[in-house]
Amino acid sequence: MAMIEKNAPTMEKELKLFSIWEVDEVPLPELTKELWDQIYNFQAKPDDLILATYPKSGTHWMQEILDMIQNDGDVEKCKRDHSLHRYPFLELKFPHKEKPDWVIALEMSSPRLIKTHLPSHLIPPSIWKENCKIVYVARNPKDCLVSYYHFHRMASYLPDPQNLEEFYEKFVLGKVFYGSWFDHVKGWWAAKDTHQILYLFYEDIKKDPKREIEKILKFLEKDISEEILNKIIYHTSFDVMKQNPMANYTTWPTSIMDHSISPFMRKGMPGDWKNYFTVAQNEEFDKDYQNKMAGSTLTFRTEI
């Protein structure tokens, strides 16, 4: 917590709005533009663990689960620093950090956990070459859209979403950071057939966290006791994480994340989209979903 408070004035002073820059027609934060060659040529290691997601699909949640697994359920170790500082976001350069995250990743000792929102076709080739293990988490698009909208509302470095209607249109068209949700989830779904990818679903983790965490343990070839497993389940539950200042972003200045507008950890419950979508929007979205997901074996639950 001390690090966050110490850096807070710098964070406020250097805060810049993330503007859009496109790579292969995928909108990315422009802060990555001057670093893209280094990011794309990032040198992975065989024992790297990659956490990949589309934004607002459970990245933060899964990072906490993986951190607890790597630290054998040691809660205090997992509170050693704020979540954003514990593990780097491969493609991002945060205004309040002295170094881009890919450089921070290079300086980490192995085994490294590295996060990314990049679609599969923009992943650094060395990650494929080194056959790194990748955990991918997908969330149903309706809840993803609503959560993304609220995140834009409360995070001052993201473009103002104006209103849900406008954000809805941008999301459907893939005109938000990291592009089309449809392309993202389908691209990673296809990649799992030829790479070491554990493809998980947000809704499954919410419904049966023990079963899904056991899948992760098997994938990582990690054995833990039932006691530690239960501790991980408890400490990575939504209600407990929401009270953890090293996980809930409440230590950040209001000028960067305004929790009075919308808390970073808002609800975390599948089906909340029903409180926001109009009947017309839902019907339109379902038609668009059927068209864009035609031929895919991927299926999503919009509630549990």
Automatic annotation (TrEMBL):
GO terms for molecular function: 3'-phosphoadenosine 5'-phosphosulfate binding; alcohol sulfotransferase activity; aryl sulfotransferase activity. One of its GO terms (biological process) is xenobiotic metabolic process. Keywords: Cytoplasm, Transferase. It is an enzyme of class 2 (transferase). Its EC number is 2.8.2.-. InterPro entries: P-loop_NTPase, Sulfotransferase_dom. It holds the Pfam family Sulfotransfer_1. One of its GO terms (cellular component) is cytosol. Its main location: cytoplasm. The keyword Transmembrane does not apply. It comes from the Eukaryota. Residues 46-296 form the Sulfotransferase domain. It is found in: Cytoplasm. The keyword Secreted does not apply. Belongs to the sulfotransferase 1 family. This is Sulfotransferase. The gene is SULT1C3.
